[in-house]
Amino acid sequence: MTTTLKWVVQVLMSCLLALVATGCTMTPGPNSFTPGEAMSMGQVTPATVLEVRKVKIRSNASTTSAGSLAGAVVGGVAGHSVGGGNGQALMTVGGVILGSILGRNAENAASAQDALQVIMRTQDGRTISVVQPLGVNLYQGQAVWLTRYQTETGERYRVEPRSSGN
C-alpha cells in the first residue's frame, strides 16, 4: 500500500470513529429532562414496582447512514489497494459492500443504550411497563412516581422513586 493510500485510509478511519462517537450523545433519561419537559406540568401517578429487568435500547432502523457510508468508503479504498485488473475491481466492490455492512453495525452498536424495563401497578390497579435509560436504582416492591409528560412528539413517561415520607 502506498504512503498516500495509507494516509487516506487513516483519515477515513478517523472520520468513521468520529461519526460513531457522535452517535453516543446523551439521551434524556430519569435524571435529565428535555426542553419540552422542563418548566412544564407532568401528570404524576403513584405506583409500586412489580419487576425490573435490564434491557437495551437499540437505534431505529431509520438512523443516519453515516456508519454505512464511512464503512463503504474505507472498505472501497482498502479493497482497491489489493490486486490488479479485474481482481482489483472485484476487491473494491467487495470492500465497499463489506465496509458498508460493518460500518452500519458499528454505528448501531455504538448507539445502543443500557436501560431498565420497569413493570409497575398503579394505585388504581393498572399494570404498566415503562422502558427508560439507566439513571435511578429501582427494585421490586419500591414505591415510585410514574410521571407522564405531553411533548411535541407525543407522550413521555419516567419512573422515579418516592421518598420514604410519601
Describe the overall structure.
- The mean pLDDT is 76.
- The protein is elongated and about 75 Å long.
- The chain has 166 residues and is an alpha+beta fold.
- It has helices at 3-22, 66-80, 85-111; strands at 43-57, 113-122, 127-133, 143-151, 154-161.
- A 5-stranded antiparallel beta sheet has the order 3-2-1-4-5, with no helix packed on it.
- It has 2 domains: 1-26 and 60-111, no CATH class; 31-58 and 113-166, OB fold (Dihydrolipoamide Acetyltransferase, E2P).
- Which CATH class of the largest domain is shown? Mainly Beta
Estimate the global geometry from the Cα principal axes: elongated
Largest sheet: 5 strands, antiparallel
What structural class do the secondary elements suggest?
A: alpha+beta
Estimated radius of gyration: 23 Å
Quaternary structure classification: single chain
Estimated helix fraction: 25-40%
Total helix count? 3
What is CATH's topology name of the largest domain? OB fold (Dihydrolipoamide Acetyltransferase, E2P)
Task: Tell me which CATH architecture of the largest domain applies here.
Answer: Beta Barrel
Give the number of domains.
2
Strand fraction band?
Answer: 25-35%
Number of strands: 5
* Secondary-structure element series: HEHHEEEE
Uncertain regions spanning at least 5 consecutive residues: none
